[in-house]
Amino acid sequence: xxxxxxxxxxxxxxxxxxxxxxxxxxxxxxxxxxxxxxxxxxxxxxxxxxxxxxxxxxxxxxxxxxxxxxxxxxxxxxxxxxxxxxxxxx
Length: 90
Hints:
Layout: H1 6-18, E1 22-26, E2 34-37, E3 42-46, H2 51-64, H3 74-84
């Protein structure tokens, strides 16, 4: 289980950034708290969501996209694998 802390959010953002995605926090009314613009590799997160909703939304996106783990360091790989095994209930 991943704690819903600022540190976890920053680790998730670092994984996405390493894969070439931009994470932006903006006003939105999307149901999941985040949406992904595939062609632009931009992830837009609802800035009014609480920390837990932001993290859960980004985890869901990380579970859907494929990440090239060869560019990640060992800590990031371990964190990414723990995210892939996480089951969320939203």
